[in-house]
Write a structure and sequence with these properties.
With about 180 residues, this protein is mostly beta strands. Helix content is about 10%, strand content about 35%. Strands 4-3-2-1-8 form a 5-stranded antiparallel beta sheet. The protein has a 3-stranded antiparallel beta sheet with strand order 5-6-7, with no helix packed on it. A hairpin with a 2-residue loop joins strand 3 and strand 4. It is flat.
């Protein structure tokens, strides 16, 4: 699967100034492949690492490559990075937060990337919204405890602006970017 994030940083309405491509591939491996199991994970032993010792039970592993294009110049930021698997429980993944932390990768130019499951970051009181905007104080986060599959890119502002500098104010033309994505 290929995910693309397209960025317009010169306000011409065409998001072709910067592009990030994230391409995933699947690998069926280890105990699962050898035993012909249909499961993605087998806690034999428990999964404590994305690679090497402790990753033997990770039968279906996704890897990905992150590529950045700026004005046509291609830069591979990371290759064969491992996506963090879904948290299936403490017997299979006894320390999921530690496992997830292994999936944060430092790339060149101050860019960090992550792909995997995370707690839904949006806070919304859906019950109050659907009750004719009968907003409560304090509200209730109706999405708390639900997970989403995430691709996160942390990119320095100076990488995203047309002039390569941090905007001086909110009214600076370089403070505005347009973004759209494709799958």
């Amino acid at each position: 699967v290929l995910y693309t994030f397209n960025i317009d940083n010169n306000m011409d309405g065409v998001a072709n100034d910067i592009r990030f491509e994230i391409r995933f591939k699947n690998e069926f491996r280890g105990i699962n492949r050898d035993a012909g199991l249909f499961l993605s994970y087998v806690a034999l032993p428990a999964i404590t690492a994305l690679a090497g010792d402790g990753s033997e039970g990770l039968g279906l592993r996704q890897t990905y490559t992150v590529t950045m294009f700026i004005k046509g110049k291609k830069t591979v930021l990371g290759r064969d990075l491992i996506a963090v698997p879904s948290n299936v429980g403490p017997r299979t993944m006894p320390d999921y937060e530690s496992l997830a932390a292994q999936g944060i990768y430092e790339a060149d130019n101050g860019i960090r990337v992550f792909a995997g499951q995370r707690d839904d970051p949006f806070y919304i009181d859906l019950g109050a919204v659907f009750d004719t905007l009968n907003l409560r104080s304090p509200g209730t986060d109706m999405l708390s405890g639900f997970n989403v599959h995430t691709i996160a890119l942390e990119v320095p502002i100076s990488t995203l602006t047309a002039n390569g500098a941090r905007p001086s104010s909110a009214s600076d033309p370089n403070a505005v970017i347009g973004v759209w994505s494709t799958t």
